[in-house]
Amino acid sequence: MADRSEKRVIVCGGGLSGLTAAVTALESGVPVTLLEKGPELGGNTALSGGMIWTFAEYEKARAAIPDGDPVLQWLVCDTIDEARTWLASQGVILGPHQVCHEGIGRGRQMQPPQAIAVLADRFGSLGGDLHLETALDSLILRNGSIHGVQVARGDRVEDEHARAVVLTTGGFQGNPELLSRYVIRDPDNLFLRSNPWSTGDGFLAATQVGASVSRGLDNFYGHALAAPPARFSKLQFRDVSQHYGQQSIAVNLHGERFADESDGNTEDTLNQRLAHQPQGKGFYIIDQELMACDEPHASGIVTRVIVERARVAGAPVVVAATIEELCRKLSPFGIPEQRLCREITEFNRMIESGQADELKPARRRHRKSLCRAPFHAVGVKASITFTMGGLQIDERARVLRRTAGSSPSAAIPPARAFSETDALSIAIGQEYRQTAIAGLYAAGCDTGNISHFEYMGGLAPALATGRVAGRSAAGFIKKVFG
Ligand SMILES: Cc1cc2nc3c(=O)[nH]c(=O)nc-3n(C[C@H](O)[C@H](O)[C@H](O)COP(=O)(O)OP(=O)(O)OC[C@H]3O[C@@H](n4cnc5c(N)ncnc54)[C@H](O)[C@@H]3O)c2cc1C
Predict the structure, then answer these.
(1) Most exposed: 147, 188, 214, 438, by fewest CB within 10 Å?
(2) CATH fold of 4-219+387-481, please?
(3) Is residue 275 helix, strand or coil?
């Protein structure tokens, strides 16, 4: 790759956040180079279901995810409509607004391959410079300002100069060492439900130059998948995701319930808890009432189809006419028969007697006993799609510095008046005690703490932060070069 002037933005990562940042910066009239580590654009965006959703209202997001970053949650809720409109204006086909996630979310459906192709075409037609199989290795920092990146291409590492860099490498779920440092003692408990290239390169490069990390580094998003010996390709991740878990009795390999299955707005909450059980494995146990139910889950698929896909993939799926028979049939999988029988019988008794709150763990929603035969038990294993924690950015997508001991003049001034709620103003006051790394931006899953244990959507934050990062990076280049 020929080196060229510093008067450009380098975007590292070609998923939705990177493509959005790149096209946005080009539209502002600034040259852009886009680096993609994989052999094709798309990352997790290409594997996704394409539902660009988030909470319909900021207040609802705060109520559901109080430990997330209020500034970034506000940014996503406030700008997502404009960002989706922009996406449609590029030629991406978006379905109508839909209410989703049990009424708290609002989204529009895209078709990921079409969206990626459109954004890639637009990038090319605006004069963007694309390099596949070229990975960000590290950042070049001089006197506290970004001056470019070192890139790895095959065996070669080369310097590429630019005064603004946007990190959009998609999180660190593909890096077992970072997972064991921040997320989970044994990363083998997790299937990787992600593209393989998101190994924390943006996170590592930025923290090496002093970037702050967000709260919630141990939180992640994923769904329980069909358990081994099931086999499936990355294109089948959605097919084998066991979205009905919240309505099941979920037990670990000791035959014990380990969580309120119904917690959270999707099954990903249960998946996070499953990850910390032995081997990250368990069984979701359901009755015929759920199997026969025609109500689709968040994935748009009904339970019986999901179960059948797990069976076809090769997951353990046990069917029985009675609870006793089911427990007997699960004992070859190492589940203690008596223990499991007691667990299910107790669950049914407490639910039927209206004592679901007294269960340990309590069951707050989906309070139905397993009563209609036949009963199914599906072997499941936890997975990780993306890490929720990451780099600390501000509302302009600027990556902040780890040390907060800056002089008042170096502190970041408010970019705009956030007067929506007192809580938000207070939180923003705290953010401004940090300083930005001049010329460094991040978006999508490289940013941290928009979701915190609870999920705020993946594509919507990627789109919203990608727009902001692209605008900010282009604005910075114009400021530096006049
Ligand atoms: C099966 C599945 C279904 C999903 N369904 C939905 C859904 O319906 N709705 C929703 O909101 N979210 C969904 N998600 C999550 C959503 O896809 C992600 O949150 C979103 O795509 C993140 O966008 P991103 O740009 O941050 O990362 P990505 O789209 O993953 O892009 C990151 C890119 O960076 C590249 N990269 C990595 N390292 C480097 C490097 N060193 N240098 C250069 N490039 C690098 C990667 O190869 C990748 O192309 C789903 C995810 C999966 C896997």
Answers:
(1) 188
(2) FAD/NAD(P)-binding domain (3.50.50)
(3) coil
CA-to-CA separations, 329 to 50, 240, 316, 340, 370, in angstroms, rounded: 38, 22, 11, 11, 17
- Residue 460: which of 60, 89, 55 has the closest Cα? 55
What are the tens digits of pLDDT across the range 359-411? 999 999 999 999 999 999 999 999 999 999 999 999 999 999 866 444 443 44
In the DSSP assignment, the letter for residue 227 is P
Report yes or no: 248 and 286 within 8 Å, Cβ to Cβ. Answer: yes
- Cα–Cα distance between 8 and 21 in angstroms, integer? 13
Query: Which amino acid, 323?
Result: I
Give pLDDT < 50 ranges for the chain: 1-3, 404-432
- Per CATH, the number for 223-381 is 3.90.700.10
Chain segment 205-225, per-residue pLDDT in tens: 999 999 999 999 999 999 999
CA 99 to centroid of chain Cα atoms: 20
Residue 403 confidence (pLDDT): 60
Q: What is the location of CATH 3.90.700.10 in the chain?
A: 223-381
Indicate whether this model's pTM tops 0.85: yes
Residues of the chain with CATH 3.50.50.60: 4-219+387-481
Q: Which residues have a Cβ under 8 Å from the Cβ of 197 and sit 6 or more positions away?
A: 37, 38, 43, 135, 169, 170, 174
Ligand 1 pocket (Cβ < 6 Å) reads 12-18, 35-38, 42-45, 47-51, 53, 135-136, 168-170, 193-195, 197-198, 201, 237-238, 385-386, 444-445, 457-460, 462
What is the CA(401)–ligand 1 centre distance, in A? Answer: 25
pLDDT of residue 4: 60
